Amino acid sequence: MAKVALVTGSTSGIGLGIAQTLASKGYDIVINGFGDPAAIEAERSNIAKTYNVRCEFVPCDITKADECTTAIETAQAKMGSVDILINNAGIQFTALVHEFPVEKWQAVLDTNLSGAFYLSRAVLPYMQKNDYGRIINIASAHGLVASTQKAAYVAAKHGIVGLTKVVALENAKQNITCNAICPGWVLTPLVQQQIDARSAKENIPVKQAEIDLLSEKQPNVRFAQPAEIGELCVYLLSDAARNVTGTTLSIDGGWTAQ
Questions:
Q1: Is 27 a catalytic site residue?
Q2: Which residues of 100-114 are buried (b: 16+ CB within 10 A; e: fewer)?
Q3: Model pTM?
Q4: How many domains does the chain have?
Q5: I need a surface site. Which of 137, 170, 221, 226 has the fewest CB within 10 A?
Q6: 123 within 8 A of 71, measured Cβ to Cβ
Q7: What is the C-alpha radius of gyration for the chain, rounded to an integer number of angstroms?
Q8: 35/66 same-domain check
Q9: What range defines the domain where residue 158 resides?
Q10: Mean pLDDT over residues 31-52, rounded?
Q11: Non-local CB neighbours of 86 within 8 Å, separated by 6+ positions
């Protein structure tokens, strides 16, 4: 039977790209995230039909520990197992530290860090019992370096890198690995909105706005695509990566090499 991967934040963007890529390799998929129910069902159905795999949607507010536990139990019941957990869901808010709203700080940490902990905590006993598991945390270049006005995001992503190492060490003697992928700029609908807004605000062509955005951080001045993140996940799930654990892998066009 195919291995089952639960991907959080997979109703759009990077998470959807990861889910589609894994499905294309024959993995059964559990998608999760917010959005219009009809649109989510359309994506679920499309994955199942296009790639001939099982695909279920399991709702869960990952900022709530009890909902994370229930989500893992539900996925286990529906799919028979959860062999792979990909903690991808995240949100962003920007402001200077002394102006950062406390509620926004908490929301970013709850979603970007606590959710990954809650889900890992819930799924690990199953993985330990089966002596198999793969946890991949989608961190960020901001899990390795900082930028201004992103205190909560940088703190959460640095926390994800630390959590990754602890989970890896605690399960090193079993066939369970935990790694973090650290993307730089990835072209998603949300990022495209930023580009379009910059184009309109500065009255410049969209392509120039894209180049300007990338040039600030990413030396190759080229976006990654969600499927590229998915392909790195595929490698981490392979037998060839069974000794890769507790590490970070960057897809950032040289951002963190500077």
A1: no
A2: beeebbeebbbbbbb
A3: 0.97
A4: 2
A5: 170
A6: no
A7: 18
A8: yes
A9: 4-185+224-257
A10: 97
A11: 5, 6, 7, 8, 10, 15, 18, 135, 136, 137, 138, 233
Statement: residue 204 has pLDDT above 90: yes
Dihedral (C-alpha) 143, 148, 150, 153: value to the nearest 10 degrees?
Answer: 10
Question: Are residue 82 and residue 150 in the same domain, yes or no?
Answer: yes
Handedness of CA 101, 106, 112, 113 (dihedral sign): positive
Query: What's the length of the chain?
Result: 258
| 232 and 139 inside one domain | yes
Residue 216 to residues 66, 158, 183, 210, 231, Cα–Cα distance (Å):
40, 21, 15, 10, 26
User: For the segment 119-150, what is each residue's pLDDT rounded down to a tens digit?
Assistant: 999 999 999 999 999 999 999 999 999 999 99
Predicted confidence (pLDDT) per residue in 172-198, tens digit = 999 999 999 999 999 998 899 999 999
Q: Do residue 103 and residue 231 come from a single domain?
A: yes
Q: Which of 118, 132, 153, 235 is catalytic?
A: 153
Handedness of CA 39, 43, 49, 50 (dihedral sign): positive
**Residue environment code for 124-137, b if the CB has 16+ CB neighbours within 10 A, otherwise e:** bebbeeeebbbbbb
**pLDDT tens profile 1-30:** 899 999 999 999 999 999 999 999 999 999
User: Quick one: 254 exposed, middle or buried, by C-beta within 10 A (0-12, 13-18, 19+)?
Assistant: middle
First and final CA of the chain: distance in angstroms? 44
Tokens of 14: 């990077």
Count Cβ atoms below 10 Å from residue 166 Cβ, excluding itself. 13
Contact indicator for 151, 112 with CB cutoff of 8 Å: no
Provide the pLDDT for residue 52: 98
